[in-house]
Amino acid sequence: MPELPEIEALAHHLREHAVYRPVARVDVASMSVLKTVDPPVSGLAGRVVTGAARYGKFLAVEFADRPGAPLHLITHLSRAGWLRWHETATVTPPKPGRGPLALRVHLDAVGGPGFDLTEAGTQKRLSVHLVSDPAQVPGIARLGPDALALSRDEFAELLADRSERIKTLLVDQATIAGIGNAYSDEILHTAALSPYTGGGRLTDAQIDALHAALRSVLTDAVDRSVGQGAATLKQEKRSGLRVHARTGLPCPVCGDTVREVSFAARSFQYCPGCQTGGKPLADRRLSRLVK
């Protein structure tokens, strides 16, 4: 799933390549992705892209008024969605339900540059909203403070008296916005903390380490990602991971074997040597962890 660094990089890519370009046409290949109907996405034709922004893990593209208030095309890419930039595209509208394409925006001219929203797999969870105010998107309205905007003291206040495991709190978007499964694994590994540690039980020293890890892991990932083309961002993310998706491989810090805990259709990875005093975690303890 794209997280804060990848969404930040996609927004940066759009600011560099799409801003000041008019919309020629919008093609919808999957009606199920549209979560709003008024205004219709066809109403973007003739408007000009004026910016792109990130709200947690939501990507927003702003279009100038014609006249009236600006409109924001906001997407949550979910687990298998992605944004793909193209310099040329077919002028023939896509057939609904064929392939991974969900929505295409033609800029300058039909068949010219623009971007696609795509989603692989059979579980279609990608969502698209067209609104006059980003706060009209329910997921954005529920977001907690952005992960990179939190000071150490604000972070400590969020964790105080919380009984949930720290892994759960890090990925809860209503608590902290922008962090998902992969970067929470990396943050906890960098901070040398067990995912099962209760948020309200952290010592001051552990809060210091966790906040520093959050800042360093995310800012390093943003620095690596921004400036990359959309097509190379996934590989860039994978290349920077030390424990996530590395089950069975040696930890690059201590050499212990990276372990995995599975739950439902997801899993997380950790290093026993760095995080749990050498003791593997039991899967049965994860029944109420991140859903």
TrEMBL record:
Entries under Pfam families matching the protein: Fapy_DNA_glyco, H2TH, zf-FPG_IleRS
Keyword match Coiled coil: no
Top-level taxon of the source organism: Bacteria
Swiss-Prot/TrEMBL keywords: DNA damage, DNA repair, DNA-binding, Glycosidase, Hydrolase, Lyase, Metal-binding, Multifunctional enzyme, Zinc, Zinc-finger
Iron listed as a keyword: no
GO molecular function: 8-oxo-7,8-dihydroguanine DNA N-glycosylase activity; class I DNA-(apurinic or apyrimidinic site) endonuclease activity; damaged DNA binding; zinc ion binding
Entry-linked Gene3D superfamilies: 1.10.8.50, MutM-like, N-terminal (3.20.190.10)
Domain FPG-type: 242-276
Annotated GO biological process: base-excision repair
Catalysed reaction equations from the record: Hydrolysis of DNA containing ring-opened 7-methylguanine residues, releasing 2,6-diamino-4-hydroxy-5-(N-methyl)formamidopyrimidine; 2'-deoxyribonucleotide-(2'-deoxyribose 5'-phosphate)-2'-deoxyribonucleotide-DNA = a 3'-end 2'-deoxyribonucleotide-(2,3-dehydro-2,3-deoxyribose 5'-phosphate)-DNA + a 5'-end 5'-phospho-2'-deoxyribonucleoside-DNA + H(+)
SUPFAM superfamilies: Glucocorticoid receptor-like (DNA-binding domain), N-terminal domain of MutM-like DNA repair proteins, S13-like H2TH domain
Domain Formamidopyrimidine-DNA glycosylase catalytic as annotated: residue spans: 2-111
Cofactor: Zn(2+)
Family the entry assigns: Belongs to the FPG family.
Name of the protein in its database record: Formamidopyrimidine-DNA glycosylase
Organism of derivation: Pseudonocardia asaccharolytica DSM 44247 = NBRC 16224
Top-level taxonomy: Bacteria, Bacillati, Actinomycetota, Actinomycetes, Pseudonocardiales
